Protein: Glycine-rich domain-containing protein
Amino acid sequence: MAIPEKPTLTPLPPAPQRTDTPTAFADKADPFVAALDPYRQQLVAAINWQEAVFEATEGEATAAAQARQGAQSAQSSAVGARNKAEAWADEMEDVQVETGKFSARHHAAKARGYHDSAEVAAAAAQAGAGLPSLEGNGRRPLIVKADESGVEWGDALQTGYTEFTSSGSFTPDPSSSWVYVEAIGGGGGGLNAAAPNSGTGGAGGHYAARLFRVADLAASVSVVVGAGGVGARNPTGGGDSQFAALVAPGGIDGKSQAESLGGLPGYASGAGGDEYGLHARGGDSVMGGGGGGARTSPGGASANAGDGGAGSLTGVAGDGQFPGGGGGGTQGNTAGDGADGVVRVWEW
Structure:
């Protein structure tokens, strides 16, 4: 009997070891288990080859039988190794593979449980601290509620502007930290003089400004806007404008020649024009109202408030321009009224 061609046995890949990490163990177990069945088939072919050799050569019969037994033992060991590998990889949670040792599946389940517990604990801690949800609130500031009962998400920095042309009250926005105020008093009324050469203009309303902290203000702040003075034979001065402790005085009324201060320029207010010598124009101003002009003279100019009214020799004098311009003076006719003041409020 001819001896058939000797079959080839493909070596098994490295077997997983108990000392391997779960990841390394799983990486070895899959290819090892996959190679077992082809290896078994090769072993069977080897056994058959051995039987053929045994039949052909009686002298090798005993060796062939021993080889067959060895192959069967190897197959049994391989099956045992496969079962052990499967147990290390996929045994149920809390079931020991060996005493005190558990599968990769067990450890994965425990890790997942720890993660879930941590998320629950974090959410509980957040809720216990009164913190609102983080989700969907990226880049928003966390602020204390108006009633101080907790915190809430606020909007990005808000700014506001309010202009008061009449008296009222101002309530700061809860999100604001600072308030900047500019105030201009009412312009003074011009003089309708009885005597020649004495029809002087009213002074412009004064300018004042201040930065406040919202924490230093009342919940509602009273705002007073000074009214313009009335031009007349006995004129009135402009009213003061006020915000909290900030006061912008009103311009004085037009005075007689003996009392006049002259049409001097100024930063916060322009003086009314007087009658000495050149029938002066009203004083100019940078921030406050311009002064009213004396008869025949123009009112003073203001860079950031109202100009003063022009004076008139015998006609109707000009009213001061808003805000805070002084009224023009005249002689024997209608003097100009001063313009009302203003209060401007910025908050952020």
Q: What stands out?
A: The chain has a mean pLDDT of 83. The chain is about 25% helix and 15% strand. The CA atoms of residues 93 and 108 lie 9 Å apart. The first helix runs from residue 22 to 56.
